[in-house]
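User: Fold this, then the next.

Assistant: Folding the first:
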Amino acid sequence: MNSSTKVLLIGLDSAEPELLQRWCEEGTLPVLRRLREHGRVVPITTPRGMGNGAVWPSLFTGVNPGRHGRYFRNPIVPGSYEPGHFDPDRGFLTRPFWEDLSEAGRRVAVIDMVVAPLSPTVNGIQVADWTTHDAVGPPRSTPSKLIAEIAQRFGSDPLNGNGDVPRDGDGYRELRDQLVERVRTKTACALHYLAQGPWDLFSVTYADPHDIGHQCWHLHDPTSPRHDPMLARAMGDPLRDVYVALDAAIGQLLEAVGPETRVLVFSGPGMGPPYSANYLLETILRRLDAPRRTLQTRALEIARGAYRHLVPARLRERPTAPLAALAQRAHHAEMHGRRFFSVVNQQNAGAIRLNVVGREPHGIVRPGAEFDAVCEELDTELRALVNLDDGGPVVTDVVRLDRAFHGPALATMPDLLAVWRRDRPIERIASPRIGELSGRRLTDIRTGDHTPNAELVACGPGLGSGRCPAPAAVEAIAPTIAAMLGVSLPDPDEAPIPLLVPSA
């Protein structure tokens, strides 16, 4: 079979590049090894301090999070202290690059790009949230009837769009087997639609490294506090099993498209130990800036605490509940005396928002010099945190978003990200300002979490071979693919990667 595809983009969502390289060198992943030997290996930088939910949108829009609009699934609701919910079909400020390709007359197929919006006018086909990690919506497609055809022919996601559930030994085995089978199912689907070419761009993304990395890192990593040697000996390495299945899948796709196709395999952001201090961040910030408390504020805080402990989550979600309104009043009352507070983010970095005059309902930090001074204060104090279990730093970087990124979406994002050092647990910390603080992050689900590592392997006519001497930004991938197809994106943040598109 030859589908006459010009560019094949394969996404390995949250596959760790260091593991891929190791297992390629050991001969465990022969297909990827050949691609690496005969193609270009490009280290990819991801948005500083950001996680998986910002990396993939930066890949498919070609712009930074401040422009495309997504830093996490819960953006800050403007004019409030509350987290919202990001709707991919409505929330992006910049469109995916395949819409530009479509307008230029290129025929495209996009299957399960991570957190991508559905493009109703795509010139070809698109499938969203069919078999993805942490699906943001129900499975859907363009044309709309396509998803029913896929479900009938290939079935549904055995994880129902969410792999984050508690498991035991048998559950880990079942998960591994489900993911290996899910790889085969998605590959069969991709091969079916590849045969309906020609395609200018065919893109398929596998979520399986993401699910197995979160759930089974402790079985792969003997240094994990939750490592179970007996279960690991009985099971082997679940990550390796899933990666082997992906390697075989890539081999099938390469055989289908033929040697004239340019093949790009994107892996990342990677996976590693899950250590984080997000669970301590709010306490850290309170010690750095103890709010002024009135009797009314304290009473409201007691009510809010009772509300959280006594009212079931399903009832807390009802905005009309009187206790919910009381808890919200307590939250807002407390903000009268706070210069900064934590906001929800994934575990790689703690997210901090300043209480800014004219932006927050009870802002007290004035824009300009005072805002800058508070940011500098937080930068200094966060970097001063020490892990008492080894004497090393707790924070490896403090990212000020308005200097690292640009665009209108910064208004719904944190002001600072405290990037945690993640090579060991963070349970006892101290600094001159906060004193000593201890705790233990309680989780029974995820034993692995994201690293910033990412990589692009590109192979095909005119691309050459060897490792690129300098990394490329993830935002450069979209304009690179567009340039390969003779299309210029209107306003990307990065130019095409020179070694992949020499004439661009």
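Now the next one, as you asked:
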Amino acid sequence: MIYQANKYVGVREKTGNNDGYEVELFLASTNLNAGYPWCAAFITYIHKQCNLDIPESPAWSPSWFPKNKLVNKYEANSGDVFGIYFNNKKRIAHVGLCEKIDDVYMITIEGNTNKAGSREGDGVYKKRRPLRTIYKVAQWYE
């Protein structure tokens, strides 16, 4: 799965408005058109490419974290889905994939972010996020 996700690192939106060929492929995997936030759509697209399960509402970031899928963030594995909580939204409002972790950081692959780690970015990036910023982690593979 991480191999598949890494293929898209470097993809950028065409005009900065949640659009562009690859971004629209990601969005289509959740039955959405261009213009919508797409971090969860990126995860959905990768899961579908790898024949893995997805939640019932895959475009909605919080749906990636049902209780039966949660794992300890300090024990996350490659391919796990992570979520970041935003106080202004009062929910998980950004998701991505864990590539690897150490005692302090998670190396991630995530869509609709940027160099600064925004939840409204311009592309697919590999990030180094402090574990303290990760709210939940879910495992969707067996």
